[in-house]
Design a protein that fits this description.
Two copies of one chain form a homodimer. With about 325 residues, chain A is of the alpha/beta class. Chain A folds into three domains: about 5-50, 434 Repressor (Amino-terminal Domain); about 60-160 and about 290-320, Response regulator (Rossmann fold, 3-Layer(aba) Sandwich), CATH 3.40.50.2300; about 160-290, Response regulator (Rossmann fold). Chain A has helices spanning about 5-10, 15-20, 30-45, 50-55, 75-90, 105-115, 130-135, 160-175, 190-205, 220-230, 245-260, 290-305, and strands at about 60-65, 90-95, 120, 140-145, 155-160, 180-185, 210-215, 240, 265-270, 285-290, 315-320, 320-325. The termini of chain A are far apart. The relative contact order of chain A is 0.11. Chains A and B meet through helix 4, helix 5, strand 2, helix 6 and helix 11 of A and helix 4, helix 5, strand 2, helix 6 and helix 11 of B. The first copy, chain A, binds a DNA duplex (30 and 30 nucleotides) through helix 2 and helix 4.
DNA sequence: TATTTCTTTGCAACCCGTTGCAAAGAAATC
DNA sequence: GATTTCTTTGCAACGGGTTGCAAAGAAATA
């Protein structure tokens, strides 16, 4: 049915090695030979079978792209950037939807069966052990958006969540809020823990500011809304640092329902700066996470690991940035 | 490094065929043999290489998942459902981001090189020729969310966009709007064309209703917003049928800026019923597209084609449904 | 032109599995 | 117990490529 290397060799009257070489960059072939082969190949509509090739080259150019977050719109941006970045380098993303799973075993086995060249774990909630499982089997792995401190054995590309928490704290302090709160994502998420940690650390410098914290069940609109509605039954803070933009939007919705106004009655700063946050109807002040850079860097690091599998693990952290929009009152 | 079938065979003291059979369902192996092999295999941490296997079985279980829309949040839901559905059946999605490309050649070649078992084209904007290219090379292909009428050679799973357009028209008529407009996505998108077609057809039955139409540059918030702002400089209709929810949300934002109120001054009905449309702060009346069913059905059809590659092409269309929320005035 | 060096080519083994076929072994029948 | 039938096993060829090595050919040097 579909033409093979042998067919091309027959048609061109040359050996199979010659054909193979004609399709390999930098192989030892004369240009006459290459021309002859290419002619035969194009007449037959031949192109090499990557999977057969991978058997000997040990390179599939398949990359496992693992995520456990298919609900937060920011991940659509993430997938877009990852797929384009990989494609541009001739790599192919094998998408793995982890859903509720946090155990690496299944994914690990599956990705090994497909001999992926590497694995990109795109998650800010998975425990470091997840990525470690791949590394310990010798598969290059990058934990994008991961926590760097606790897993120095694995490459991490992302941001310093602790510092981001401090940044939020400084910002609220500068705007003279006297009672602030952190409204995080799921308590077990490493990103939430770290942002809270930084937030408290920094706030400790302002003894006059009251601080509290609480967690939403997940990074989602409804979770944010629900949590804020719950909070509204008690003492409401003057400003909230919200662990994620989609969560923030839920919170905004709740605030409106309660009958309060942003930023007049209550301040809000989000996290991520997803596209939607800049929509005029939302206009969320938030902390921008440079996902374009993070993703590019993740891919570059992955590619570098192909040549240097035992590369010493590093953490690549990018600075975040406050994006001023309409949900915090002006600075002093 | 990683254990192969031969290693297992040596360790267990049996032939490679025996090992192979032990890992194949329904193969002729005694249970003693299987036990022996499994023991050796688990000691070595062996699991079969799918790609090597695929050379002889001619099944990779890889499915190309092709999309050109990484901006509309509905596609996050689509990816979620597709990846889970495929995984549940032991299939693996190889994600292809088409971006601006509409030419199938590159994707076709790439997916052939990876010997995918089938291709799912998830797009309501790609021309039918795109999917046809795969079919003509003998690769099972389903056009999910595609247009059925113009490409009877390819399997299509989705909705009847013309009928959906009629549905919107009926709904607006029933609510006694006297000047309505269709605000579609990109004019070249088949889905936009069909929805407009149905909308006009149905509206033709109501000679007293004035009707017009216009197109946004793409299915996005900004495109919707921009288009509505532009429209606001001229004659504004009483109600808009918007070709997509994210577009609608942009339109809503513009309406607010203009100083009009929904549904008091102006009505709006969207399309898709993405998660976000049900957020309390948006509460968009819209037409629900049953994407869960569409995607399940697409996958089932794909699987059926494995056994019956020349299956006569069919269109599977699912009915849509109006979801009443807060952006249309009550029925008469 | 003869010799040396470099480039190009083909052979054959290999990558990691599967599978048709025949031989060996076990079970069933007489 | 001998014969027939069924099950299990191993051999060897195969799937679609790549690659080390040696031979052949071309170019460079003497």
């Amino acid at each position: 049915m579909v033409a093979t290397l042998k067919d091309v060799a027959n048609k061109a009257g040359v050996s199979t090695s010659a054909v193979s070489r004609a399709f390999t960059d930098g192989a030892s072939v004369s240009s006459k030979m290459r021309k002859k082969v290419e002619k035969a190949a194009s007449e037959l509509g031949y192109s090499p079978n990557f999977l057969a090739r991978s058997l000997t080259t040990r390179r599939t150019k398949l990359i496992g792209l693992v995520s456990n977050n298919f609900h937060n719109p920011i991940f659509l941006e993430v997938f877009d950037l990852f797929t384009r970045g990989l494609q541009d380098r001739g790599l192919r993303p094998l998408l793995v939807n982890l859903s509720d799973e946090t155990n690496p075993e299944q994914s690990l086995q599956m990705l090994r069966q497909y001999s992926v060249d590497g694995v990109l774990v795109a998650s800010s909630t998975l425990p470091p052990e997840f990525s470690m499982a791949f590394r310990s089997k010798g598969i290059p792995v990058i934990n994008t958006f991961g926590r760097y401190s606790s897993s120095p054995e694995v490459h991490v590309v992302g941001i310093d969540n602790v510092e981001a928490g401090r940044m939020a704290a400084r910002e609220l302090a500068q705007r003279n809020y006297k009672a602030v709160a952190f409204l995080g994502g799921p308590e077990i998420a490493t990103s939430t823990q770290d942002r809270l940690k930084g937030f408290r650390e920094e706030m400790a410098k302002y003894p006059l500011i009251r601080i509290s914290h609480t967690f939403a069940k997940e990074y989602s609109f409804q979770a944010g809304r629900t949590e804020m509605l719950r909070l509204s039954k008690g003492d409401v803070a003057e400003a909230y640092f919200c662990g994620d933009d989609v969560l923030s939007i839920g919170v905004l919705s709740a605030i409106k329902d309660i009958g309060l106004e942003v930023p007049k009655d209550i301040g809000l700063i989000g996290f991520n700066d997803m596209k939607m946050s800049s929509w005029e109807s939302i206009s969320l002040t938030t902390i921008h996470q440079p996902i374009q850079q993070i993703i590019n860097s993740s891919i570059e690091l992955m590619v570098a690991m192909f040549d240097e599998p035992n590369r010493y693990p590093e953490a690549r952290l990018f600075p975040c940035q406050i994006i001023e929009r309409g949900t915090l009152r002006p600075r002093l």
